[in-house]
Design brief:
This protein is an alpha+beta fold. 34% of the residues lie in helices and 30% in strands.
């Protein structure tokens, strides 16, 4: 089953709903970065959240970056997601694994707060021209969903409920995704819509289970979670979108990065190492430049 993103409206157009299934994309990130169970889940949640935020961009080339900058052993997180449905990302300590901790429902689960520690969430929106818009808020819990909702409320003054979840079975990630429900700006003053959404969101439990059960028909999750909102999936091309883990690194971009080192440093690399190896942080692709290529690059400089 392909990863997809589904859009819907509810409450007569007063509420926007977006859900995304990221199972394949997260498994690809897990494979490329050799992620632990804990880091697979954290990065997976951020991948889902990034795609949700990117889906609200008004231009097709729009991109959103999510960055965790904190003092925890995770050593940071970075996700780059596009309106076009492509996403990539990495964590600073991919092998991190911690003891499980008790949740509010007394079910042991991953210790997100210890992993991320105290710090900040940075979100940047880039429409492909002009200066990107960046905003920073304190990390709420490291669970990602609460952190993104806090960002939307404090930085964009948008009332939102963000759900993230996953399911791991027999050591395999079999489901991963996220959902966002937002009151549209023109309806922010209508208390009936806000109260209705708050009530519906308060009653949502075990999002991960609902996500897994709707994996073959993602659009059904809106009616399952919000039965009284009268949701309507957008039937146009904009309503459904394919999602994929895709990096924008290329050999030519790696060569351009080498040139930025300058002639002297490249001459030192040529003298001492005879070759250069560049590894992309986002996808772990490796680009080799041998002695002959280094000489050619130095000659160009």
């Amino acid at each position: 089953m392909k990863d997809i993103l589904v859009r819907a409206t509810a409450a007569n157009g007063g509420i926007s709903l977006v859900a995304v299934n990221t199972t394949n994309a997260v498994n690809e990130a897990r494979r490329r970065h050799s992620l632990s169970y804990l880091t697979t889940v954290i990065l997976g949640r951020a991948i889902g959240a990034g795609l949700l935020l990117a889906s609200t961009m008004k231009v097709q080339q729009g991109r959103v970056t999510i960055k965790f900058q904190s003092d925890g052993p995770l050593k940071g997180l970075f996700v780059d997601a596009g309106k076009d449905g492509t996403v990539r990302g990495y964590v600073g300590n991919p092998e991190l694994e911690l003891d499980l901790t008790s949740t509010n429902t007394n079910h042991p689960y991953f210790d997100f707060s210890t992993a991320t520690g105290k710090g900040y969430l940075h979100v940047t929106r880039d429409i492909g021209k002009g200066q990107p818009f960046s905003s920073t808020v304190e990390l709420e819990s490291g669970c990602v969903g609460e952190d993104i909702a806090s960002y939307l409320l404090h930085s964009e003054q948008t009332r939102s409920a963000v759900f993230v979840g996953e399911k791991i079975e027999n050591g395999n990630l079999i489901s991963s995704g996220a959902l966002i429900a937002q009151v549209l700006p023109e309806k922010n003053s209508e208390n009936t819509i806000i109260d209705n959404l708050n009530e519906q969101c308060f009653n949502v439990s075990n999002f991960s289970d609902h996500l897994y059960e709707c994996k073959d028909n993602l659009s059904s999750i809106f009616e399952r979670l919000f039965p009284s909102l009268n949701s309507n999936v957008i039937s146009s091309v904009e309503g459904y979108q394919t999602i994929s883990f895709q990096c924008r690194c290329t050999r030519s971009r790696s060569m351009a990065a080498l040139k930025l080192l300058g002639k002297k440093e490249l001459e030192d690399i040529l003298k001492n190492e005879k070759e250069s190896k560049l590894t992309c942080k986002f996808c772990n692709s490796i680009y080799f430049f041998g002695e002959t290529e280094l000489r050619e690059i130095i000659a160009e400089l």
